[in-house]
């Protein structure tokens, strides 16, 4: 009981500090915010050896716990990833500042001048797992959009996350940002998540990134509005008129370019007219890269693979495993995606404009593609600089949650003495 009270007080202090920082950040100039981001980027480059030293502690602990190769890949901070992390901060610094943007303005018949203006959300709580670069991306986006942030990463990346947050915060503070603009919860105690979700007095929105169990817990316990980043059960549908080379290239990229991330394909759907010709070659290419295949009855009539179960259609493997289903039409493909998918990212490969438009209209996902890999669903790839998650929610924002998604709207009304009769 005493430990829980101590943890509660620690979290309340963090929340209080974040609220105070958000009051300063709301009116902080763009020049100061951009300087803070650039200094943090340079600090990451200078501290690469220190970051990798802390990261090795997490990798060693992960191997001891038996984490999969894909999970260890998500966890590792290579030289290239540290440089990419720093580059991401520079890119965010160069982006337009959304705070103060006027999205609409008009004059009412009574003379009132009414405008809708973008404002920071306030304090953003981010709960995430595995990937330490999320710490840098989240800190950068929140600071640029004028929000204070409280970070709670997974225990598997605790040393990496603490180092990234410390280096970022120190550099940003030196550049003029408030001291507690970015804070990270330093305990791996799972009770910290529960206490964080009670801080509705201080935190304005919770953004979770993680598996189903984490998201479910947050929805059940949070007193704070949640913008969900659910699992990525992404699909590629190969229509009967698809170009064979394009279909193969997109399938391999969507599944294998980096299988341990949320925008990797988990289910391949293929039209029954194209399957006999295209599927054997695609399947062999997948097997050659070490990918395990699981298929429906019709798939197993064409290639050798493990029988797919009902559970496979709703599983985010995050590994070199792919479920395959043969369908009779684009309508059947759409029904499958809307029933079993997570409304994240889904693609069609087709030469038909009409079929492509049908797919785009009917698939209920945050991002839909024609003749391109789902792996592009990413804030940086979309030109947003970075993102703190792919929102599969329908309220507030959907898709890559970047600077604009971290703002809300305020109505600003200017008059010259009007009163309501």
Could you explain how this protein is built, in words?
Helix content is 43%, strand content 19%. It has 421 residues and is α/β, with parallel strands linked by helices. The protein has two domains: 2-229 and 401-414, Aldehyde Dehydrogenase, Chain A, domain 1 (3-Layer(aba) Sandwich), CATH 3.40.605; 234-376, Aldehyde Dehydrogenase, Chain A, domain 2 (3-Layer(aba) Sandwich), CATH 3.40.309. The strands form four sheets. A seven-stranded parallel β-sheet has the order 10-9-11-8-7-12-13, with helices on both faces. Helix 10 (244-256) links the parallel strand 7 (234-238) and strand 8. The longest helix is centred in the first third of the chain and has 24 residues, at 2-25. It is globular.
Percent of residues in helices comes to 40-55%
What integer is the average pLDDT? 94
Structural class: alpha/beta
Question: What is the level-2 CATH architecture name of the largest domain?
Answer: 3-Layer(aba) Sandwich
Gap between N and C termini: 58 Å
Radius of gyration: 23 Å
Q: What order do the strands of the largest sheet run in, or round the barrel if closed?
A: 10-9-11-8-7-12-13
Number of helices: 14
Domain count, please report it. 2
Strand content: 15-25%
Following the backbone from N to C, one meets helices and strands in this order, namely: HHHHHEEEHEHEHEHEHEHEHEEHEHEEEE
- Low-pLDDT stretches: none
CATH-level-4 superfamily name of the largest domain: Aldehyde Dehydrogenase, Chain A, domain 1
């Amino acid at each position: 009981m005493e430990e829980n009270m101590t943890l509660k007080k620690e979290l309340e202090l963090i929340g209080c500090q974040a609220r105070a920082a958000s009051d300063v950040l709301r009116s902080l100039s763009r020049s100061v915010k951009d300087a803070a981001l650039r200094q943090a980027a340079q600090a990451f480059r200078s501290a690469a050896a220190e970051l990798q030293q802390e990261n090795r502690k997490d990798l060693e602990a992960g191997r001891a716990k038996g984490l999969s190769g894909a999970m260890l890949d998500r966890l590792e901070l290579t030289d290239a990833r540290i440089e990419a992390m720093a580059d991401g901060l520079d890119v965010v610094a160069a982006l337009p500042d959304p705070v103060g943007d006027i999205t609409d303005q008009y004059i009412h018949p009574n003379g009132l001048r009414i405008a809708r203006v973008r404002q920071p959300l306030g304090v953003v709580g981010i709960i995430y797992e595995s990937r330490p670069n999320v710490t840098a991306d989240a800190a950068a986006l929140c600071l640029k959009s004028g929000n204070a942030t409280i970070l709670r990463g997974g225990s598997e990346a605790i040393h990496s996350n603490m180092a990234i947050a410390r280096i970022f915060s120190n550099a940003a503070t030196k550049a003029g940002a408030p001291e507690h603009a970015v804070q990270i919860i330093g305990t791996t105690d799972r009770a910290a998540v529960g206490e964080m979700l009670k801080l509705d007095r201080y935190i304005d929105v919770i953004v979770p990134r993680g598996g189903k169990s984490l998201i479910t817990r947050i929805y059940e316990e949070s007193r704070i509005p949640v913008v969900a980043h659910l699992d990525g059960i992404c699909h590629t549908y190969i229509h009967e008129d698809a170009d064979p080379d394009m279909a193969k290239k997109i399938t391999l990229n969507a599944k294998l370019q980096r299988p341990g991330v949320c925008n990797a394909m988990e289910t391949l759907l293929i039209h029954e007219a194209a399957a006999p010709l295209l599927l054997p070659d695609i399947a062999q290419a997948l097997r050659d890269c070490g990918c395990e295949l699981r298929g429906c009855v019709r798939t197993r009539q064409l290639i050798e693979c493990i029988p797919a179960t009902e559970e496979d259609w709703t599983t985010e493997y995050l590994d070199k495993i792919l479920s395959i289903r043969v369908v009779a039409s684009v309508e059947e493909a759409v029904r499958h995606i809307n029933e079993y998918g997570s409304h994240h990212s889904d693609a069609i490969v087709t030469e038909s404009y009409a079929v492509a438009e049908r797919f785009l209209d009917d698939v209920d996902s945050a991002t839909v593609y024609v003749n391109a890999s789902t792996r592009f669903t990413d804030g940086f790839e979309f030109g947003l600089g970075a993102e703190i998650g792919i929102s599969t929610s329908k309220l507030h924002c959907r898709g890559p949650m970047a600077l604009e998604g971290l703002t809300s709207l305020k109505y600003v009304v200017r008059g010259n003495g009007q009163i309501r009769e």
